[in-house]
Amino acid sequence: MKPLQKKDKAGKNADLSHAVRVLEAEAAGLRALAENIDSAFSRAVEAVQAMKDKGGGRLIVAGIGKSGHIARKIAATLASTGTPSFFVHPGEASHGDLGMVTENDVVLLLSYSGESAELSDLIHYTRRFGVKLIAVTGGAESTLGKHADILLLLPKMPEACPNGLAPTTSTTMMLALGDALAVALLERMGLTPEQFRVFHPGGKLGQKLRTVADIMQPFKNLPFADVDTKMDKAILTMTEKNLGCVIVADEDSGALAGIITDGDLKRHMSESLLAKTAGEIMSKNPKTIAPDALAAEAVNVMTMTPGRYLTSLIVMDGKKVCGLIRLQDCLQTGVA
User: How far, rounded to the nearest angstrom, does the alpha carbon of residue 10 sit from its chain's CA centroid?
Assistant: First the structure.
């Protein structure tokens, strides 16, 4: 049993050593890529941006084998960051899918060797019909490299595979270059978190990027009282609407005067409470937020206000009340 334990320990140490070697090899590839990137990258960004400005075009990303898997991810990243893009399989392109590529498009073709036979029809098609071709390859003198309009040349770095054969370092560089292209285009369009959410409506990211308007209680559901309303009626309204507060405002104009919360009731609890007016009990100048603000901002205001812990914020469209956002609603929708 003891020799087996020693062997296991040695095996684990070897595994860690291999892992570190692979990561260092791929990190070296990324450093070399960063050091050697040149004006061709700017021309590639310009070409894609010109396509977007013209309208109607898409960035077609293609590759075969491991490069094809990377191409799919790059296309997905581009599409999710505001650049119309999709993946075309070179083999399928040769059997009819070339019809997906139009003269308004730009093709981004990935191949480390630049000599994959399956790419020939797609290369030929772009040359015949004047479709802009951007190549990502390690072979400047390869078929792909020589026929491309713009060449994004990958540095010749050893693969992390001990045999130097399995695409590892090369595909990591491709992936990173695709991310760089997507982010450069994103920076150009000044994509805001709100716009980013349009491409990510589902999942946790989509929830975090929801706006106040998406989850607020609408105007029709709000409990209102004017400043002269007696507290017996104000409390009845609070109970009926069950939102934990009464908004003191002109219901017709929406002009805000204050808010009455459970905390205000506790602070003013006395035998004369019901005879007082809403204007006497309300908290003046309550915290508000705009409907187009991110719901996450509302959570921050409610939970980070010095000396106070708020459970709701009044939503104001200009000077008019338009809704109410509660911490409870943010929790239920996954924002908080």
Answer: 43
Query: Contact 83/108 with Cβ under 8 angstroms?
Result: no
282, 260 Cβ separation under 8 angstroms: yes
CA–CA dist 52, 189 (Å, integer): 10
**3-state helix/strand/coil string of 131-145:** CEEEEEECCCCCHHH
Task: List residues bridging with 106 in a β-sheet.
Answer: 59, 132
Round the CA-based radius of gyration of the chain to a whole number and report it. Answer: 30
Measured distance CA(296)–CA(262) in Å, rounded = 24
Give me the helix-helix angle, 169-189 and 2-36, nearest 10°: 50
Q: Domain 2-191, what architecture?
A: 3-Layer(aba) Sandwich (3.40)
| Residues listed for the chain | 336
| pLDDT one-digit tens code per residue, 279-290 | 999 999 899 999
Phi-psi category of 99—alpha, beta or left, where left has phi over 0 and alpha has psi -120 to 50?
Answer: alpha
Question: Which CATH number is 212-332 given?
Answer: 3.10.580.10
DSSP letter assigned to residue 219 = G
pLDDT band at 1 (very low <50, low <70, confident <90, very high): very low
Write down the domain spans for the chain: 2-191, 212-332
From the number of C-beta atoms within 10 Å of its C-beta (0-12, 13-18, 19+), residue 201 rates as: exposed
| Predicted pLDDT of residue 9 | 65
CB 293 within 8 A of CB 216: no
